[in-house]
Structure formats: structure tokens, C-alpha cells
Amino acid sequence: MIKAKSIIILLVALVAFTVRGAERVGSGLLVIYDFSAAQGALVKDRSGMQPVVDLRIMNPQNVRRGKGSLEIRKNTMIRSDKVPSKILNAIKRSNEITIEAWVKPANLKQDGPARIVTLSKNSSERNITIGQEAAALQARLRTTHTSKNGMPAISTGRNLSTRPTHIVYSRDRSGRATVYLNGKRAKEQTVAGMMTNWDGSHHLALGNELSNDRPWLGTYYLVALYNRNLSAAEVTQNFTAGIGAEIAPVASGLSPNAHLFESRIAPLIAKHCLECHDSATRKGKLDLSRRATAFAGGETIVPGKSAKSRIWEMVGANKMPRKRPPLSATEKAALKQWVDGGAKWTINQIDPAVYVHTGRSTQNWLRRLTVDEYISTVRAATGVDIAGEARELLPPDLRADGFSNTAYNLNVDLKHVNAYAQLAGIIVRRMDAQKFSARFSGKKRFTDKDMRALIERMGKWLLRGPLEEREVVVYRGITTTVVANGGNFEEAVGLVLEAMLQSPRFVYRMENQRGDGTVWPVNDHELASRISYIIWGAPPDEALYQAADKGGLGENAQLESQVRRMLKDPRAIDRSVQFISEWIDLDRLKNLRPSPKKFPRWTPALATDMRQETIAFFKEIVWKQNRRLSDLFNAQLTFLTPRLARHYRIPNPRAGGGVARYDLTGISSRGGLLTQGSLLTMGGDEASMVSRGLFVMHDLLRGTVIDPPPDIDSTPVPSKPGLTQRGVAEDRLNNAKCSGCHRKFEPLAFGLEKFDGLGAFFDSDQFGNKLRDDGEILFPGEAKPIAYKNSAELMDLLAGSNRVAKSITWKLTQFALGRPLGPSDARIVDKIHQTAEKNGGTYTSLITAIVLSDLVQTTQTVITE
Amino acid sequence: MKPTINRRTLLKGLGSVTIGLPLLEEMVATKALAGPKAVPTRAFNVFFGLGIPTPLQREGFNDVLEPLKPLGNKLLIMRNVDQVRCDVRGINAHFDGATGSFTAEPAQGEAKAGGPSIDQIIRHTHYPNGLPVGMVPTLNAGTFFRRSRVGRYLHSYNLDGTVAGRMQEKPRELFDRVFGTFAGLNDTDARRQRLKRSVLDSVVDQYRFYTGPSSPLGTPSKARVKDHLDRIREFEQRAFELQREQGKGPALPPRSKVPHGGPADPGGEGIDITLEELTTEWRLMADLYALAIETDRTRFGALTFLAAGERIRLTGDYKYNGKTRYKFDDASMHKRTGSAGCSHEWWHKFNEKKKNEQLRAHVHMKMNEVAYFLKRLDGTKEANGRSILENSLITISTESGDGRHNDVKRELSGVFHAITGANGRFKTGQIMDLNAEAIDVYNTMLRTLGAKKQLGPDKRKHKPVDKIRT
Lengths: 865, 470
Description:
The complex is a heterodimer of chains A (865) and B (470).
Chain A: H1 2-18, E1 29-33, E2 42-43, E3 55-57, E4 63-66, E5 69-72, E6 78-80, H2 85-94, E7 97-105, E8 114-122, E9 125-133, E10 136-141, E11 154-155, E12 165-171, E13 176-181, E14 184-190, E15 203-206, E16 218-226, H3 232-241, H4 256-272, H5 274-277, H6 291-295, H7 310-316, H8 329-340, E17 367-368, H9 371-382, H10 387-393, H11 414-430, H12 433-438, H13 448-462, H14 469-484, H15 489-502, H16 504-507, E18 508-509, E19 514-515, E20 519-521, H17 524-535, H18 542-549, H19 556-567, H20 570-583, H21 604-624, E21 637-640, H22 642-648, E22 660-663, H23 677-680, H24 689-700, H25 725-733, H26 736-745, E23 775-777, E24 786-788, H27 791-799, H28 802-817, H29 823-838, H30 843-852, H31 854-857, E25 858-860, E26 862-863
Parallel strand pairs in A: 19-26
Antiparallel strand pairs in A: 1-16, 2-3, 3-6, 4-5, 5-16, 6-15, 7-12, 7-16, 8-9, 8-15, 9-10, 10-11, 12-13, 13-14, 17-18, 20-25, 21-22, 23-24
Chain B: H1 7-13, H2 21-30, E1 43-48, H3 54-57, E2 76-82, H4 93-100, H5 118-126, E3 139-143, E4 167-168, H6 171-179, H7 190-211, H8 219-241, E5 271-274, H9 275-294, E6 300-305, E7 312-320, E8 323-329, H10 330-334, H11 344-348, H12 357-378, H13 388-391, E9 393-397, H14 408-411, E10 417-419, E11 430-437, H15 438-448
Parallel strand pairs in B: 1-6, 1-9, 2-11, 3-4, 3-6, 5-7
Antiparallel strand pairs in B: 2-10, 7-8, 9-10
């Protein structure tokens, strides 16, 4: 029996040494040591994540180094020179950790436990230690629920051997800690609490305690630390990758050549080449938008050989792009480097829309609360409805890149500061400060202990997360001033509330953005705040805070349960209405001033009716019927006032006031957002094909127009006898100067020609010209257009299009994140889209997928050291 | 020489704006912030919409530039200045050219320039630690209607390309921004004052933390909070330190009578407006802006007269030097309503071989209004004997050198520029053909003003345009 077990272990070890090709997990990696240098006193951190944490061998004579191994033969310590802040900070924030090592113990007697990996100070103070206790593995983790020594510890059975062994300790936010040996779960135990109390002065060491009194003897092959919990599958993946597995660049998880392609070459091709060489245009029969077609024939791009690649021949000699400025020297150098480096092409198709925003607008900007969010936040936090005053005093938020919550544009003016101060005063006057404070503390005393306790609890609620000591001190200062001026408890609470309501943590959605330049998980309170503002446009409620306090948002199942609960709250509906209103700019309606000569029956009340129609329709499809979001484009129903029904020339409009539901199955020309006045009016009085077509192209299909269009909306040519708007558009399409771009978007509006500038439906125009609604639609990225016979077919094509569905995903994700999306987001957005589609393509499935995605769960940090 | 403000001109110019004389004295006194003989460094960008077609610029002061002639000795008019690099493919040149004016770089977003504007680089060069307390760090104001993108009308951008200060688009807003004190905080009860002060101190402390070394924020976010902190300090100064002027403060200007916000740009269809309505509003803005400079409440910023791609249907008699020069009636002349009836269309219809009367009249009127503002600044002499106009760097520019949209290169070439002498640093009294890119002209201006930071990519080789320097 013993012999059989030994054989299995040997086989496992052999597999570990021999299996190659499996990739190691890169996401969340903080440091990795592969001991690849055969000499010297330094052990290099190969993670590539700055700042690196190299380790120093204190007694080099006591170790034997090989290429890929380091054997400790006598007592020594291998430790960081500096405090490894990137590790400490990352783990404190994420409240998750994984330590992985490939080791071969010298014997099965050493104990203490003998330190294999430790982040600690001495034998009684640590953040975490993995050690050997005879034939068992022991892990001690410091949390708010364990001692400074990380006790109680977690221990495996006597499973260790003196053969190369893969050991992993991984602990998730909820406190579940698991020890794996050679890819198999060896022990699981709960280690409750948060790691926020980790000591920021502890060093990282291998082979001994920092006090030099718990030596370990044996051989290291690999040591790695992650800022997150690795799943069982990921542990297996790393085990399977084995000792000596290639360490990929962590920042992107891609090879350098593939990274170059995604960061430089794909944007370059989108910008300079696809105007003529996309799937639809294919000049010279060359389609550079897809991998298959770009490499077809073997001449355009010859991996490794730029000199033999047609693309380099043309671009390098400035023969391409034709009639356009040549590529810059740096762009050319990148192209050559990419081809010579192997021309890795990692995506199926280059979509120019992905590369529209590549500048700093996609950066992680601090988000000020929008006016709507401020109102909701005050209401949720204090119970006061401040909507009227806030809308009067706060400057309105301006649209940028399609939405008014775009973070880079949420700047501040003196008027904001004045408004926040005034509003804080008004809010507090409307509150019963004493009653409010009783929610957090029953003690109405000025003693330091009582007042601090009140400030801590009240501040945590109002400022959306625990206060730091410096903050408590600041607010406490106000209360002492009140005492010094003979004030009472109520006055003190009121003034503290005023200060909190003006503080950056109330006015902004404050998050940590600093780190090592990599992507970090957001902490639980930040995550709670992100989720609640995405779903409600308001701060977390008590249930969400409680889940954050317990680390309960780290588990997808718990998170999904929270999201399901939150989506049942009416605020989720309000937030979704904000989204649709912003997306299609419903506020535009209140400013409509059509020509009285052309539209003598127009009344501003119709604009209100149009807005109501779209919102009621949206709520019906998205919430009441829980249908796919794409159904917004062809659902055969709507909601009209009698006035709007008459305006639309709907047969037999209902009598009476108010909005009524209309079944449109018998009215084939109508059905879906694009047949509603709220959207049709964006063509202006002349029902511009250009404006309507551009809306469909930009906002529904995420298409791009490469060249500046000739005055996109200010020179509409009027209809006249014998010339309809369709005729005007076709004239443009027959003009070689215009057609290159106009053919991509004007035909998208052909199906809408029967709707006039204000959305009424006619078969002929005022000159008696017969109108048409047949046409073709060319989906971006596709080679051939699809014909439609009438507007109803166009709506069905849009509703059935994955491109349209994906555009909705992009729009909602942009709204959720408060910033335009860039190339680095594309992969995750694709994943969000696939997940949402798998779950029905509904608003709730999409919001859930967004919340569960890395775009919400993580943050891109900037380097601090 | 003691700084003097021509109060008579000032009060007359302000029309119905009443400035209490004691306050004015106070303002003049505080103007000595820069020292009795020192002339502060100032830089302002003056933008007007739609541009001047290049062929009309060649006529010198003989037609559309005529209103600038009286100031000719104090201006350097620069022709053949190109902004082609500001083209953002896929976006029309109204926006590209407008966002590129004073930045010379293509926009990075609807409300984000490709880099800083001239005034902001000079501001950071000369006041690295901020402006004196109580000053408006950047004053942006203007009379405009088209607002589909912020870059169309706002022309001062921070070092990171975000807007450098909110737009004040109504005279009352501008007035409040520069001269206002705040209701509710002028509480004379000393005890209440102390408590309010304590609240504000705590707020300042919080914001200061987020701009300091321990801040958890990245650079762009920190800059945003720093901006907020600066506004709080300004607020603090207004709320507490200017209280002594209570009771003798200026009266508010009259309410604006022209549309603002959404109604100013109804679905891109344009608005009807009379010349009198337009110029009354603008001149009030220009007066207030000039007053802000004269009283040393601001040293940097931008002033806009009509947005890029502006859409107005103008009516009314245009009088110049007491004579009716033209009768505006855009919609009737176009025989169209909506956007197609707007003055904007004259730029689209520009034809070198035709008279272009309507376009010429509009440009002439615009130059007359720009000159109105410049003359206001020329009316105040400073310690060195020169006027504010002569001592400041005022850059006047626009969106394009040709309003026709079918050739981007032509559209963004030959964009009108004029600058003032910046206290003798630049040649004036000339019309120069520069045949240079705006980025090189701007960088030459910046270097002359002592700036180390340059516009454009770091690696770009600078091509100085030294002939503009004295």
C-alpha cells in the first residue's frame, strides 16, 4: 500500500516536471519567484508588476542555487529589503489572498512551524505564514477575527513528503480558506474577518521567520502570491503547468507580440486601413478587418518577415494609405516590429468602434455625483427630498460622449461649492438631527467616547464606508467647537451632518486608485457603492452594507442574490429610465421648436406626450414583460395620449385624457423605438436622412464614419415636386464625393421616409410625391447589405441583429461606468454581452452581467511608489 | 503711475449694471495685489464662431476687419495659420477647429481638448502655486447658443485637457462668479460665524487630504479634487472675508433676455434673435468680463462671442459708425426655416467669385463686437503706462479658415488669429502672413512668455515663428 502511494506521488511529481504548454494563471499575480538565476544573492521577482519585490539571501553560503531551484542547506533567511507595500496594500484591499509554492522539504521533522513563506515580524506577530509542522502544512492568517499571531491556524493532515510538492493556500473574501496539495483539496476551514488590520511594516521572507528563529530546510522551485482567491480549477491549472512553466507577462496576460497587436496594431489598422480595406469595401480585394482574410494568400502579412510582407512594402514606402497622410515613423516602427515579431493576431475581427476612444477620456476618473445621484443619495441617506432646491442651485451636468454622467466632464465650479453648502444647511434644517443620530447611538453626550462612536457610525452610513481615524478627528473637532461656544448636542450633530454632506466622500464616489499600476479588486464597500449606483443611482442600503461588512460580496452567488434583490426595488426602474432618457436624449424634446409655417398644429404638449410614450413603452418591454432589450426595436405596442395618437394619424384614437396602451399589430408601419416621435424628431423639420441615418449608425450599430461628413445636419435640401427626401439622399449617394461615407448611413434611414419631421406617417409628401420605405442595411463589419421591403422589416432586422444587441451592451456599460469604453475594455464587454445573451438578453441580465464583470469588480490602479 | 480705471467709461459701459462706488474703490485698491508698479501676467482667449474665409482676410482692414482698424497698432494680425492637425476624423470641423483654437491639438472627447490651452500653460508657468486668494483662477464666459458639444463654446482647458472653468453664460452668472458674495453665510452673529467656519474648516481639511501625498487618488482625479479645493477656498474668501462690503455691494445686472440652456439650441434647428438682443447681451458680458480684469479679479480665461457652427436667424439693422451698414434677415434671405435659415449657411455657401454680402456683414458685425471688448481693455492704463490690452496676451481666434465642409484641409487652413503685444513681447501694428501651423505659433508665444511646457507631442520638433516676437 505504501509502495503504491509512493508510486502515485512520484508520478504526480513527474507529471509536474514534464507537462509543458499549460499556461499559469496570471490574473491577480503580485509577485512570483522562479529561482531561474543559478547564482547571486538576489532572488528576482519575475512578475513584471512594478515595483518588483526582489528578495535577498542573507547567507548565500548556506544555499545551493540551480537554474530553477534554490536549496536551503543550512539556516538562513531570504527576505525583502523593503516593506512589500504592493502586496500588503493589495491584500488589505481585496480581503483575499493566495500563496502558492513548489517546494521539496529536506525532512519531515522540522517544525515551529518552519517558515516556508511568511509576511511577518517575529514569532508572534504576522500577517500570514505558511510553514511546515513535521509532515503537516500549517497556515496562520491575521484577520480582524484572529490573533496577531494568526491563530487559530489551519493545518493539513500529515500529507507532506520530501518530494517536490505543489502547495497552495487560498482564502476568499467570505473567509473560506483552502489548502491544496498537488492540486487536490487537503483542508478547508473558515478564517473569518477582514485583513484590513494587517501590519503595514511586515516583510516578506522565505526559509525562516524574520526574527531568524524558525528555519526551514529544503528546495524552492517556485513561490507566487496573488491578491485574490484562486478557484480549484485555477489551482489545478497552475499545478498542471508544473515546475518551470513559462511565466507570461502579467499586465496583459498576452505575449509581447500579441500585446503589441492589441495595443498598437489593431488601432492603427482601424485608423489607417479599414476605410478602404474593411469587409464591405475590400479595395484591391483586401479585407484587413479579419484574421482569416488578412492572412489569406500568404503575401499581405508574412509573420516574421516584414521584408516579404506586402503590407510593409506598401506602408513603409508611403504608398499606403492612398490619398491620406502616411503613417508616422513610430507607427511604422510598431508595424514592422509586429510583423517581424511573428504577427500575432488575437482577435477575430477589428471593429473600428472599439478604437474611437483611446485617449485619456477612458481613464479612471473620480466620479462626482450627478445632480440626480445627489438627490437620490440625500434622500436615501437622510430621508430628505432635496430635489427642488438641488435642481435650482446646482449647475446642470452637461452631456459628453453621449451621457451626462461622463466622469471626466463632471467638474466643479464655485457655484457647486456654494450650492453644496447651502443644500447641506437646508437638509439639516429639515432633519430631526437628534432623532437621526439615535439611529446610530442612543447616547446624547459630548464625551469623547460617545461622540466618536456616533461620528464613526453616522459617518459610515453617510459617507458610504468606514471612517478613518483622521476623519473622526476632523468631525470631532466640530463638536468640540460647538461645546466651546455653548452649543447643545443637537446643534453639534447638525453641524457634523452639514460638514459630512459637503465632504469629498459624500459629493464624490471616492475609491482607492493607487497601487502598482495593475488591476486590483475593489474592496467590499467600494463594490457595494459601485453596485448600488449602477442599479439604483443611489447609495447602498443597509442590507448591502451588511453584506459588504461581512465580505459577502466576494462570492458571485451572494452578489447575484443582492443584485436580484436590488433589481426588484423601484429605484432600479428609475435608473433604467435615466439610461434610456440619456441614450436617446429625451431632454432634447422639451426644446423642440419646429417651424410654425411647416407644422402649424405643433404644440409643446406633444413633446411631453412623445417622452411619455417612450418611457412607458420602455417600462412595459423591459420591466413588465421582461423581454429582450432588442425587442425595443420591433415590439408591436405603444402608449399614446389621444393628442399624440391623432398626431400620428393612428386610426380611431381613444377618447379621454392620459396615456393608453395601443396594440400595433394591425399597424405594420409602427412598432419600436425608431417609429416613435421621440426619435423621429431628431431629423429636424426636414426629416433629415443624414441625421436619422447617423443616429442609427452611431447609436444602434456602433458604426464609424471615417471622413468628416459634409455638414451633417445643417444644409438639408428640401423636398419639392418630383423630389423626395429619398431622392435627395440618392443624389448624394450617386455623387462620388459623398457616397463613400453616406452610403454607410443614409440608407439606414430609408425605411423611415414615410415619417415626417415630427413623426407623423404619410404615404406621400406635401408635394404629392409618393414616399418609399424599402431599402438596405449594411451592418458594420459585414460584407453585404441586407434588403428590406418596408420599415417593419427594417425594425425586425434591427431587433434581430447581434450588432444592435451588442451596441446596447456597450451603451449600458458606458452609462454604468460613467466613461467611454476603450480597447482595453473590449474583451470584458464581449464577455458581458455573451453572458447577458445567454441569460435572455434582458435589462436585468445585462445589468447583472455588468455588475459581475471585472469592469465593476476591479479597478485599474496607478503606481504610487 | 497709479493704476487707473476709467470709471466713467466703466459705469457708462455697464449700462444698467450699477456698481457701488465704495466697492469699486475697494476693487481698485485690491488691484494692487501685484504690487504698485508690477503689471500682472495675464492671458485670455477670445473666440468668435464660424471664422473668416481666408480670401476675406487678404483684404486687410478694407472690409470685414475694418472694426479692428482703430486697434490696429495694438494687434498683430496673423494670416495663413493652419490647424489641420486638429482634424478628428469622423467629426465635423466646426467642433475640431473650435476645440483646436488655443490648444492646437485634436479634441479627445466632446468636452475634452487634446491638451491645455495657451492661457492655462501661462497660468501654471507664472502662478505655479495658484493665484492670489480671492481671484477667479479661470474665467470662462460668453454669449452663444449652439451647445451640442462643450468644445464648441468653451475655450480654456486644463493641462489634462479637461475644461478649466465652468462657462458663465448669463450676465448675472458672470457677475456672481466674479463679484458675488453668498447668502446665508454673511451671518453677523459671531458665534454662528465661528461654528460655520468650523464646518468649512473640516470640509477644507477633507479635500486637502485627497490632494495630498496620502491621497488614494490617481493624478487626474487628484487634479479634480484640487480644483474643488481651490473653489472652496475662493468660496471661503467670498463668504467670510468680503463681508465688510456688505450693504455697499454692486447691484445685480438685469436678467438675460436671450435663451439659454436647452432652449438656446432647440434640436439643432437654431433660434430667431434680433441684433439688438444679441449685442445687448454680449456687450453686458463683455463689460463684466472687462471689469473682472480691470479689478484684477481674474487673469486667465476665455470669452466667446457665438459658438462654433452657431445657428441663429438674425434680424435687425446693423449700424456702424452711425450709418446703417446692413439689414440682417437670414431666414427670409435663405427663404428657409429651421437650421437651413440660419446665418451659418452663408459660410457653407461662400464662393470666392461672388460678393458674399451676407457673410461679410456677419463677419464685420462680429469683428465690431470683438473690438468692443478689446476697446474696453484699452481704456484702462496700468503702472507702466500701457493699457491692459497692451499688457495682456489676448489671443483672438476662431474655428476655421473656410466654412465649406467638403475639404477639411482647406477648412482648417488659414484660420484667423490676432494677438496683443503682451507688454511689448510681440510685434503689433502689422498684418503678417505666417504660413505656419498654429501649434508652432502658440509654442512661440508660450516660450516668449517663459513657459517650458509646450503644446503637442513631447517628441515633436518645435519650429519657432520668431518673426512675431519683438
